[in-house]
Amino acid sequence: MKKALFIFGALMMLSMGSSYAQKYALIDMEYILKKIPAYESANKELEALSEEWQHEVDKEVEVVNAMYKKYQADLAFLAGSEKTRRENEIVAKENAIQELRNKYFGPQGTLFEQQQKLIKPIQDSIYEAVKEIATEQGYAMVVDRASATSVIFASPAIDISDLVLARLGY
After folding, report:
1. Confidence band (pLDDT; 50, 70, 90) for 5?
2. 125-153 per-residue burial string, b: 16 or more CB within 10 A, e: under 16
């Protein structure tokens, strides 16, 4: 019985020791991205494109709203076929607006493509730098403080954000 307790105790000590041997680090992706000028300029370019496209969509919405108001004003004077034709025009214009929104802002839209073109290479370089640092320094895990909502407190001593920036040349 004493031998079994001793073996159990030894196994517990070994498992506790191995959990303490793991090293963890944090990065703050928002902080890193703010320090990279290429990210800031890419973000401004995306915002400008987004505003331009949104303005185009808004103009089309104004057109369909005017069509609808005119339709409402003329409704009492419209014959059945003319009423149906104008309703169909309004619906077709609304569908065209939805297609335009999807073209620009949809999951595979132009904005997404531009983000992939401009932002993804920056994110990939950050990921590679983090991976290299983690491998070199033996970190078992690197957590992004900006996106990890369950991290309540972390010691600044384990934050490697500045090390990542230095690795990237900033």
Report:
1. very low
2. bbeebbeebbeeeebeebbbbbeeeeeee
- Determine if residue 138 is left, alpha or beta; phi over 0 gives left, psi from -120 to 50 gives alpha, anything else beta: left
Q: Which residues of 10-28 are buried (b: 16+ CB within 10 A; e: fewer)?
A: eeeeeeeeeeeeeeebbbb
**For 15-53, how does the pLDDT look when each residue is reduced to its tens digit (9 = 90+)?**
555 555 688 999 999 999 999 999 999 999 999 999 999
Instruction: Check whether 6 has a pLDDT greater than 80.
Output: no
State the pTM of this model. 0.71
Other Cβ atoms within 10 Å of 105 Cβ, number: 15
**Does residue 61 sit within a domain?**
yes
Q: How many folded domains does the chain comprise?
A: 1
Q: Is residue 145 part of a domain?
A: yes
- 156: in domain: yes
Residue 50 lies in a domain: yes
Domain range spanning residue 70? 23-168
Inform me whether the pLDDT recorded for 58 exceeds 80. Answer: yes
